[in-house]
Amino acid sequence: MRFRGALVAAFLFSCGSEPSDTKGRSSDPTTPASPPPFAGPGATPGAATAAGCNSVRGKVYDPAGRNPLYGVAVYVPRGPLPPVPDGVSCGRCGTPISALAATMTDSSGAFSLAGVPDGESVHLVLETGKWRREVTLPAVSGCKEIVADDPALMRLPRSASEGAMPHIAIVGGAADSLECLVRKIGISDSEFGTSGDQASHVHLYHGGNGRSRFATGKLFAEQSVLFTDAKKLDAYDAVLAACAARVEDARTIKPAWVSAMEAYAAKGGRAFFSHYMNYFVRGGSPALASVATIRADDGDDLVDPFVADVNTSFPKGKLFSEWLGHVGASTTPAKVTIHSAQYTVSAVAPATATSWIDSKSGVLLGGTPVGPVVQYFSANMPAGAPPAGQCGRYVVSDLHVGSGSGAGDFPGGCGDSELTPQEKVLEFMLFDLSSCVQQDSSPPAPPVVN
What we know:
Distance between the termini: 52 Å
């Protein structure tokens, strides 16, 4: 592989191998515990039920309080929030939430919640997947509107002390630094650990040529510890695997690991694979391997920068394109500029996978024109199963998404700078990965309230 400069992109989690039953609850005993996981990103804001005549208008941001987020449920709960369940589970869209009023953020991160009852204070829940935070707004009565757009308040939690978070495993690699990306979206350093650390939500594992230890000297667990233990895999809501800067195949990724990940995804697990880690797809079962056309060699580098198309032919793709414009990651509608783009994936099977970013043609670094190139695609899991039986999700990136080489001790070299435009692309994809599962051909549905 000819990696040409570090790339870019950041997202969500913090490691913890076998979480305890108390994970995700508020540390403040006076604060109600968190609500049932919301199931279903919605495309347009709007009240789902009317319990009063007041309203709340505002925006919801990522944990860092920098970028507004699409697809976050905003609701007034009916009562105390039950704990978010630990570990892998089938998170399909359409599961009702217990709320007096509910809505969803749009592609700009904005929401307008009607039907808010009178009260000495307003308890508002922000939730997507297993991310959840409860905030308190001032008293309201007399059919008034509250404006809630302060990023310091209206953001997803940075740590378990602020709310519920998913449990995430990150397998490092030399060509990416996914651990830095997750940190840059605002996850607290206290939430990073490794296998066996019960107090953390993001666990770091040593993968091919990647980081191997924390700045304290504590070593990461090896990737084999994760991929050979189904019980350990099932403790995570998502697994992020970085490119190791080498062609991966059965010599470096054992067939048993590939099968274990397929079984994990069938239960509702979510996974992100960068570049050569696509072997978890092409080396999988016939149904999984057929979702995309992926080269088995080391591929080629595309011109740098490479301008690709955002696929707006399906509902979420259109929302994705709009969001990129709102956060400054795209200056031309439905176009995105990519650095260190690779030519490894050339097509997806429309019946079983969705291409999010692609181009009808590309140009290699040497000037040779090539056919279609796919930079991001997703597939609901199990691959090829009827939609009603799909609970998990795979996302594959054919570009490098780390900010840095993945070298050195963590968190050294990560920095605290804002996300680059390309990192913002992945931020959307990773939060979408953690949300409920639905068919990409269907418009996102608003919250279902009971």
